[in-house]
Model the fold of this input.
Amino acid sequence: NADSAMYEQKKSGKNGYCFFSHELEAQMKEKVELEGDLRRALAFNELILYYQPQYYAVHADHQTMIGVEALVRWNHPTRGLLTPEQFIPLAKETGFIFEIETWILREACRQMKAWQEQGGPLMPVWVNLSCVQFYQLNFKQKVVQILEETGLEPQYLGLEITEGTMMDPSFSEDVLSALDALGVRISLDDFGTGYSSLRYLQRSAIHRLKIDRSLTKNIVENSSNQVIVATIIAMARKLELDVIAEGIETRDQLNFLLGIECNDIQGFYFSRPLSARDIEEVLFAKNHYRSSSVEGQHSTI
Ligand code: C2E
Ligand code: MG
Ligand code: MG
Ligand code: MG
Done:
């Protein structure tokens, strides 16, 4: 009959459409499963924050930690450690992003305050925010509440938003200004990835530009990227914005950036994102602050 003919056709795999629909079905199934799992992830404490240090580098062997970026991971019971790319888009689609990001904000603030109380360095923890937060006028209240709850002073919280977020028609400049007035710092993440609209820089409460990895990745070889990055740095300086380069993996990349006076650096060259426990070894290391007096010594960082 027709059914069994269809079955044979599918099994044979010769029919491209059937093959595609099988793939799609599997994807849908996985998505539905993951969605259910995400519902429980928060309740079961499966989300964890990793922290990637950011450094001020004087030269390639002489650097001071100036902050950390909180990066979420999902310790899934059967799928293992999932990266943000594997679940943040789904969290956005399903609306869980609000709960998740509230948890991330609170956890990052709590952790930074705890480190400060244990004698750790006074520096901001930077948290990534998705665009949806900026459609909500009460987002500022959420931040105020979390800072009060955790006792973290506002200058030790940094928020990373992307250019794409600012370009969204629902984006609220008022929310950004309110956050600025609160004293938290705001960084434009993934700067230079294609949405660049320079007019956002002069009228907004932005404190820092973070140059995207796509521009720094091949900075040593690619002369047009060299020009773009050097221009971003010069512009940032004139606008009195801080600027940090991300994705720095090699000494050559680092030296190039230092040569054009970009001294704030984040990337695997200095450190990968670390679990809270692993980063504590760096935070509380005696020779954490490297100065000229320890010149010649090699850091374990
Ligand atoms: P991002 O904000 O641009 O974060 C930096 C990403 O680049 C991190 O990946 C980090 O591990 C990676 N990275 C840092 N240095 C290097 C390097 O030298 N080389 C290479 N190849 N990669 C480097 P991760 O943790 O997988 O995060 C990916 C993206 O996911 C982030 O990009 C951010 O947009 C998003 N994300 C992470 N955590 C959160 C979160 O808590 N909330 C939201 N909404 N998004 C998050
Ligand atoms: Mg970021
Ligand atoms: Mg980034
Ligand atoms: Mg990036």
About this structure: Residues 52, 71-72, 83-85, 88, 101, 104, 128-130, 160, 189-190, 246-249, 266-268, 273 surround C2E (ligand 1) (CB under 6 Å). Confidence is low (pLDDT under 50) at residues 7-13, 290-301.
